[in-house]
Write a structure and sequence with these properties.
Number of strands: 0
Shape: elongated
Helix content: 40-55%
Oligomer: single chain
Distance between the termini: 79 Å
Number of helices: 4
Largest sheet: none
Structural class: mainly alpha
Radius of gyration: 21 Å
Amino acid sequence: MSASKVGPKFKITKKTNLRIKRAISYFQSQCEKINSRKILEISEPNLSVRTILRHLLRMQLKYKRASSIISLTKAHKEKRVAAVSA
């Protein structure tokens, strides 16, 4: 047995890896936001979003979830305070 074949087999092949890299560079050149669902449309259909996210981490790329909380400015806060005190 060969020691280099130990461990889980990656679901993303070298061909898919190249597709993902090309998709990322394409989205960056078009100044588009990159998300795993866009990458999923270009890559193989039997992959999940989580698999792509794990692969992005393996490629030394960071990802984060978009914040769903609306950040309010000082002007928003002043309007709220003015509405309550009026």
